[in-house]
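New to this. Look over this protein:
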Amino acid sequence: VFLNAQTSAVPFYQARGFMAEGEVFMEAGIPHRRMRRRLPPGG
């Protein structure tokens, strides 16, 4: 599962198993970070 998180929300997603990837980028004038979480097989 991939998502683009606002940098202020990165700790929220990390607490739920997401890992930050790449560099911070701007989207709609707000800094974001790409996040990824691998789901278990069959999940």
In short: The chain has one helix and three strands. The chain has a mean pLDDT of 97. The first strand starts at residue 2 and ends at 6. Residues 10-14 form the longest helix (5 residues).
